[in-house]
Amino acid sequence: MLDYNQITAGKLIIFNGEPWEVLSSHVFRKQQRKPVNATKLRNLITGRMTENSFHQSEKVEEAEVEKQNIKFIYTQKNEYWFHEDEDPSKRFALTEDQIGIGYKFLKKDSIVEAMIFDGKIVGIKMPIKMELKVVEAPPAIKGNTAQGGNKVVKVETGASVNAPLFINEGDTIIINTENGEYVSRV
Questions:
Q1: Which among 33, 88, 121, 150 has most CB atoms closer than 10 A?
Q2: Per-residue pLDDT for 147 more than 70?
Q3: What is the mean pLDDT of residues 109-127?
């Protein structure tokens, strides 16, 4: 069990009978009242977001989520097919909602971590940074670049990313999978 002030960002909790991930938390006190922990939560099953305030007297149960490595094989009609890392015969499909924003950066044979709650996969955890090859990059255009210029490039998975002007077709870049932003060139 977690006290109200132990519910911090990154923790997985049971709230209303379902597993939730704590995205942010802020403990504060309003004037003469008792302290509260204002949190932003994301449901691991449905992906729904909500905000909730936990009061000093409240306790919540920490969710027991197992983690297992899985390997991405291919995509077909908005279904993303995976198999267990050790056993290729155990195949299964996940939807974009279950994967989250990271589906744009999945490339063949990449290994990700599946989050399992009550024997069911509720989501996947992508590596925070991934190396992807640029397949399309428009030429750099001269102009007002005092604040740094950007252009939209297409990577091998089909995703579009804002990148600096010096990135060319064939370059390998590192992308943050949590927000889809360019990090650096390899």
A1: 121
A2: no
A3: 81
3-class SS at 66? strand
Smallest Cα–Cα separation from 47: which of 8, 102, 113, 90?
Answer: 102
Enter the tokens of residue 49.
Answer: 């977001």
CATH number for 66-125: choose from 3.40.140.10, 1.10.3720.10, 2.40.50.140, 3.30.70.260. Answer: 2.40.50.140
Residue 81 CB neighbour total at 10 angstroms: 14
Q: Which two tokens stand for residue 90?
A: 């155990």
CATH number given to 2-62: 2.30.30.30
What residue spans define the domains of the chain?
2-62, 66-125, 129-185
Average of per-residue pLDDT values in the chain: 83
What token pair was written down for 75?
A: 């995509």
Percent of the chain residues topping a pLDDT of 90: 1
Q: What is the Cα Rg of the chain in Å?
A: 20
Domain 129-185 CATH class label: mainly beta
Percent of the chain scoring above 70 in pLDDT: 97
Tell me, what DSSP letter sits at residue 7? -
